[in-house]
Specification:
Blueprint lengths: L7 H9 L17 E10 L3 H10 L7 E4 L16 E2 L4 H4 L3 H11 L6 H21 L13 E2 L9 E2 L5 H14 L4 E4 L3 E8 L2 E8 L5 E11 L20 H8 L4 E2 L4 E8 L12 H4 L3 E3 L19 H15 L4 E4 L5 H7 L1 H9 L9 E10 L2 E3 L11 E3 L4 E2 L11 H22 L19 H4 L8 H15 L6 H15 L10 H22 L17 H4 L4 E2 L7
Parallel strand pairs: 1-2, 1-9, 2-6, 9-16, 15-17
Antiparallel strand pairs: 3-5, 4-5, 7-8, 8-9, 10-15, 10-18, 11-14, 12-13, 13-14
Helix pairs in contact: 2-6, 2-12, 4-5, 5-12, 7-16, 14-15, 14-16, 15-16
C-alpha cells in the first residue's frame, strides 16, 4: 500500500530545495573564534527556559548559562494574558485532575499523548504552587484565596491569572528568581545561530554575542526553549522574537521535528488599521463577552453548542465564515454583559490599550479577527525533554511533547512550559553531572553543506531582505492560514522553494539575515507538513479534505534533515 503521506510532487520539491541540507548558517573556523564554557546551556528566557534554569541550578556544582535573543524579559510568556490552568482548588470548585485531562483530550482531536498529559496536569499543581512561593501575584478573592476563572472548552474555573497581564507577572517572578541564583548566568542580546555537534552529539552552540562577534559556547547539555514561530504570519499575536529559530537550528542539527502543521490561531485579536494585532484574551468570553456581527447578531450558537466558549479552532473558522457572509473584515466582541467594575478589575490593560485607539470597551464592542498564536508542533521530545539528538533537550513552545494533540486547550501552554521546563532542567543537570565538558580540540566541521554556498558569498546583487520578509509573511498568512487547501499549499511551497534558493545558501553576518534564513526554512517545513496531512484535524483545516481521516492520519508526522539527504 502506498504511504498516504507521500506523493511525487512532494518528492520532487523535497529533492530540489537549495540549502535545505545545509548544516551551519555561518561559515566559521573553530580556531579563530572565541570560546565560552558552561555546564547547562539554555537558549531562551520564557517560562520554559527560566523554569529549566532554576531546576538545573539546584545542583550547585553546575553552572547554568541562559541566552536571550533580546531582553531577558522578552518572550511570548510575557505577553500571555489569560492565565495558567491548574487544578489547585478541587475542594472548592468540584474540579479534578481527571476533568482537566478530559477537557484537554476533548479538544486534541485524537492525538494526545495521555502519559505526558497526566504528567503535565498532575505535576502542574505543585509547579504552579511553586510559582506562588516565588512571589507570583495571582489575583485573589476577598477571603484571600486564589481567584479562578474559566475559559473556552474548560468544564470548570481553573485558570489562575493576574488581571490581563498574567504572563508579565510570571516573567517578573521567574526573572527575579533566576537573577538571585549565583550559579545561573544570563546573557541577553545573544543570538544563537546554530547548535554545535560532534559525531551527532550536541556539545553547545555557535552564537553571535553581545558585540556581534562569533563565539562557540561549549556545554555538557543544551536546552532549546526558543519559543514558537508565530512571526512567520502577517497577522500574529507573537512578539518579534518568535521567528522559529529553535526549530530551524534543531532541524539543521538533525533533530526530529513533529506536527509542524498544527498552528493555533487565536480567534480574537484587536483589528484596527495601523495597530499591532493585540491579543484580546479568551477570558473575556469566559466572563460573558459575546461575538457579534456588525448588525449585532450573536452568531456562535450557529456553529457550536458551547457558543462563545467553543474551542479556539472552531471560533476562528466561525469568524472567517461570518466575515465571508457579511463582507466585513472583522467581527465585534461585545462586553455589555460584564459589569464595568469587573472589566476595570479584570482587564485593565485591554481597557487602557483600547482607549488609546479611541475605543471605550465599557460602552463599545472591540473589533476583532483571528491571528496566528501558538505553535503546537515542534522539536520532538520525551517526557524529560530529551530530543533525538544526544545532549540536546527542548521545552516549551519550541518542543512537541504531544500533550496538545492537534489543538491546544487554552491556558495549557504556560502549564506545559512550566512543567516540562522543570523536568528538562532536572534531566540536563543529571546528565551534565555524569560527563566532562567538551573541549575545543574536539573540533566540529563547519562545512557549508550546500553546493551553492561558495557562489552565494559573492552574489550578483543585493537582496532586499525587508521586501522578502514582508512577502514571506503575507504568503504564509494567505496560503497556510486558518483555512488551507492543496492548491494553495502547493503554490506556496513552490514559491518558498524559489525564495530560498539564494538566502538559505548565502553566508550572512548579521542577526536580521540569520533570522530571515530561519524563517524561510521553518516556513518551508511548515508548508510541506501541511500539504502532507491530507485531512482536517484540530487546528489544521483543509477545505479540500474537510473530514478527519483516522485510518490514514491518526498519527504524529515527523520530519528531519535526514529526509533531505540525497
Amino acid at each position: 500500500m502506498t504511504d498516504p503521506l507521500e506523493n511525487p510532487l512532494l518528492e520532487d520539491l523535497r529533492a530540489c530545495v537549495p540549502g535545505m541540507n545545509r548544516r551551519y548558517l555561518a561559515d566559521f573556523e573553530i580556531s579563530r573564534i572565541s570560546h565560552r564554557f558552561t555546564d547547562v546551556l539554555i537558549i531562551g528566557s520564557g517560562i520554559a527556559g527560566l523554569s529549566s534554569a532554576l531546576s538545573a541550578a539546584e545542583n550547585r556544582d553546575l553552572e547554568v548559562l541562559v541566552l536571550a535573543k533580546g531582553d531577558l524579559e522578552e518572550s511570548a510568556t510575557r505577553w500571555a494574558q489569560g492565565g495558567i490552568a491548574a487544578v489547585v482548588l478541587p475542594e472548592r470548585t468540584g474540579d479534578s485532575l481527571e476533568a482537566h485531562i478530559h477537557d484537554t483530550i476533548e479538544v486534541a482531536a485524537g492525538l494526545t499523548d495521555e502519559e505526558n498529559l497526566r504528567i503535565m496536569v498532575s505535576e502542574g499543581v505543585d509547579r504552579v504552587k511553586g510559582l506562588i512561593e516565588l512571589g507570583t501575584g495571582f489575583d485573589r478573592r476577598t477571603d484571600g484565596g486564589v481567584q479562578l476563572t474559566r475559559e473556552g472548552a474548560h468544564s470548570f474555573a481553573r485558570i489562575l491569572h493576574r488581571g490581563d497581564t498574567t504572563g508579565q507577572e510570571i516573567t517578573r517572578s521567574l526573572v527575579e528568581a533566576v537573577l538571585d541564583r549565583k550559579n545561573i548566568l544570563c546573557r541577553p542580546g545573544t543570538f544563537a545561530i546554530d547548535l554545535l555537534d560532534r559525531e551527532g552529539t550536541c556539545i553547545g552552540a555557535l552564537v553571535s554575542n553581545e558585540t556581534g562577534e562569533l563565539e562557540a559556547v561549549w556545554a555538557r547539555q543544551t536546552i532549546l526553549a526558543t519559543g514558537g514561530a508565530g512571526r512567520l504570519y502577517r497577522e500574529t499575536t507573537n512578539p518579534s522574537v518568535a521567528t522559529g529559530d529553535g526549530l530551524a537550528m534543531a532541524f539543521r542539527a538533525g533533530a526530529k521535528l513533529l506536527d509542524l502543521e498544527f498552528i493555533q490561531f487565536h480567534p480574537t485579536t484587536l483589528y484596527l488599521a495601523g495597530a499591532d494585532r493585540f491579543l484580546i484574551t479568551e477570558a473575556i468570553r469566559g466572563e460573558g463577552g459575546v461575538l457579534r456581527t456588525k448588525s449585532g447578531e450573536a452568531f456562535m450558537e450557529r456553529f457550536h453548542p458551547l457558543a462563545d466558549l467553543a474551542p479556539r479552532d472552531i471560533v476562528s473558522r466561525s469568524i472567517l465564515e461570518i466575515m465571508k457572509e457579511t463582507g466585513n473584515n472583522k467581527v465585534w466582541l461585545d462586553l455589555g454583559a460584564i459589569a464595568p467594575e469587573r472589566i476595570r478589575e479584570r482587564f485593565p490593560r485591554i481597557l487602557e490599550l483600547s482607549r488609546s485607539f479611541g475605543i471605550d470597551i465599557l460602552s463599545q464592542p472591540i473589533p476583532v479577527r483571528p491571528s496566528a498564536h501558538y505553535s503546537i508542533g515542534g522539536i520532538s521530545t520525551d517526557s524529560h525533554g530529551r530530543t533525538s539528538v544526544p545532549g540536546l533537550l527542548a521545552a516549551g513552545e519550541a518542543a512537541c511533547t504531544r500533550v496538545h494533540g492537534a489543538n491546544r486547550l487554552g491556558s495549557n501552554s504556560l502549564l506545559e512550559g512550566l512543567v516540562f521546563g522543570h523536568r528538562s532542567g532536572i534531566e540536563a543537570a543529571r546528565a551534565a553531572a555524569d560527563i566532562t565538558r567538551p573541549e575545543p580540540s574536539q573540533a566540529v566541521d563547519p562545512g557549508g553543506g550546500s553546493p551553492a554556498a561558495e557562489a552565494a558569498k559573492n552574489p550578483g546583487g543585493d537582496l532586499d531582505l525587508a521586501d522578502l520578509l514582508s512577502s514571506l509573511k503575507s504568503l504564509v498568512w494567505y496560503k497556510v492560514g486558518v483555512e488551507r487547501n492543496g492548491e494553495d499549499l502547493s503554490n506556496a511551497l513552490e514559491q518558498l522553494s524559489a525564495w530560498t534558493a539564494y538566502p538559505l545558501a548565502a553566508d550572512f553576518r548579521d542577526v536580521e539575515s540569520w533570522t530571515l534564513q530561519n524563517m524561510l526554512q521553518t516556513s518551508w517545513l511548515l508548508t510541506y507538513c501541511a500539504l502532507r496531512r491530507r485531512e482536517s484535524r484540530g487546528v489544521h483545516f483543509r477545505a479540500d479534505h474537510p473530514e478527519r481521516d483516522d485510518v490514514n492520519f491518526r498519527r504524529h508526522m515527523s520530519i528531519s534533515r535526514a529526509d533531505f539527504s540525497t
